[in-house]
Amino acid sequence: GENVEQHPSTLSVQEGDSAVIKCTYSDSASNYFPWYKQELGKRPQLIIDIRSNVGEKKDQRIAVTLNKTAKHFSLHITETQPEDSAVYFCAARAAGNKLTFGGGTRVLVKP
Amino acid sequence: DTGVSQDPRHKITKRGQNVTFRCDPISEHNRLYWYRQTLGQGPEFLTYFQNEAQLEKSRLLSDRFSAERPKGSFSTLEIQRTEQGDSAMYLCASSLWDSTTNEKLFFGSGTQLSVL
Predict the structure, then answer these.
(1) B101 and chain A: CB distance < 8 Å anywhere?
(2) Cβ neighbourhood burial of B79 (10 Å; 0-12, 13-18, 19+)
(3) A43 — contact with chain B (CB < 8 Å)?
(4) How far is it, in rounded angstroms, from Cα B33 to Cα B98?
């Protein structure tokens, strides 16, 4: 089955700096890669996703890049703000299958 | 509220007792997933349904766990003879799936189970 590894497990950045989280996956058939943000005590919320026919996708201050050959994808947050502090999860899925999640990255944005 | 709802939000039980959780998905969604999340970890897949059919169950899932979605709408997850290791957040998610669209999962707020 699919295995997703996520790094780093914690990330502390100064407000205004960029944050980058990296994930690798094992199943070459995976074709959908979402990112979820989970604030303390709240539900995971989808913030951005990418399909394997696209190399990069941006939405305001967040972007995701995908390297299918290397089987890794990354989340980039620019101009970080205190409200970006949360746990971020990457996930991967082959067509019609379940989502497999990474272990999460706790991001702390210091004012 | 048109999102995924779960009940109860919190459940405290004694070891050996049975517990049941309920999930109400977004109304037009045909798929419903159960995940388990422990502190500091990512959601771990338990099982999922398409309409009323249970399509996959995690091999890691003990036979003390059972889930149903009898009419293809709400779902229940039952844990029999609870153990302290069952303490976790149980998350439900739903999605609208067909073979041509990009299936996006929407999560509920979860049921936090504490087994004493």
Answers:
(1) no
(2) buried
(3) yes
(4) 15
pLDDT at B74 over 90: yes
Which residues, listed in sequence order, are joined to residue A57 by a DSSP beta bridge?
A64
B74 touches chain A (CB under 8 A): no
Q: What angle do CA B6, B9, B13 make, to 5 degrees?
A: 120
Q: Using a CB-CB distance cutoff of 8 angstroms, which residues of chain B are in contact with residue A99?
A: 33, 45, 105
What three-state secondary structure class fits B32?
strand
Span A23-41, pLDDT tens digits: 999 999 999 999 999 998 8
Contacts of A45 (CB under 8 A, 6+ apart): A36, A37, A38, B107
Query: Cβ(B64)–Cβ(B79) under 8 Å?
Result: yes
| Close Cβ partners of A58 (under 8 Å, ≥ 6 residues apart) | none
Amino acid at B116: L
Look at residues B34, B37, B10 and name the one whose alpha carbon lies nearest to residue B23. Answer: B34
